[in-house]
Amino acid sequence: MDAHTQYVIQKNVRFNPLEVVDIPKVVAECQEEWFNQTLCRVNDCLVRLGILKGEFHWHRHEMEDEFFYVIEGRLLIDLEGREVELLPRQGFTVPKGVPHRTRAPERTVVLMIEGSTVDPTGD
Predict the structure, then answer these.
(1) CA distances, 111 to each of 61, 81, 123 (Å)
(2) pLDDT tens digits for 3-17?
């Protein structure tokens, strides 16, 4: 995987309350290798969609946990001394303050849930 993946991160909320969140449409429209779109806000959290191929940089979120749920593909989460592999319909929470890096060897679609104050590129 290319260590120099270009990230496209859309922080704007794409779907408002009472709108259908159309994940297949967003996935079909995506041309980027590494795309992150905020889908909607739920209370104090954001639901983000990641369409990923390649690797993200090592980072951490000092104040917030981050949850990953794989819809399709395969997501690898590197932690210090450990690698977690997630397949479709599997999820994993990275606790606040834990350094991590995500990697997708093939095109992977992931839902992420995190606090609304999280910077998606890490602290």
Answers:
(1) 17, 25, 20
(2) 556 777 888 899 999
